[in-house]
From TrEMBL:
This is Bacterioferritin-associated ferredoxin. It comes from Pseudoalteromonas lipolytica. InterPro entries: BFD-associated_ferredoxin, BFD-like_2Fe2S-bd_dom, BFD-like_2Fe2S-bd_dom_sf. Keywords: 2Fe-2S, Electron transport, Iron, Iron-sulfur, Metal-binding, Transport. The lineage of its organism: Bacteria, Pseudomonadati, Pseudomonadota, Gammaproteobacteria, Alteromonadales. Residues 2-50 form the BFD-like [2Fe-2S]-binding domain. Its cofactor is [2Fe-2S] cluster. PANTHER family: BACTERIOFERRITIN-ASSOCIATED FERREDOXIN.
């Protein structure tokens, strides 16, 4: 699903960027330009970021 219409960024691309090391909205904005134009995507981007960071933390906790 497209999250940032201004830059054509999908939820999958955001998730991939997080998997590749993005840890903050600033990182996502730097890599994908999300939130840099109209800003309407920021809420959805933050939700995706938070969900993925929780998943990563859970996986890391299970491995440790």
């Amino acid at each position: 699903m497209y999250i940032c219409l201004c830059h054509g960024v999908t939820d999958k691309k955001i998730e991939q960027t997080i998997d590749d090391g993005a840890m903050t909205m600033r990182d996502l904005s730097k890599e994908l330009q999300v939130g840099s134009q109209c800003g309407k995507c920021c809420g959805c981007c933050k939700k995706i970021l938070n969900r993925k960071l929780i998943e990563i933390a859970d996986i890391t906790e299970q491995v440790a």
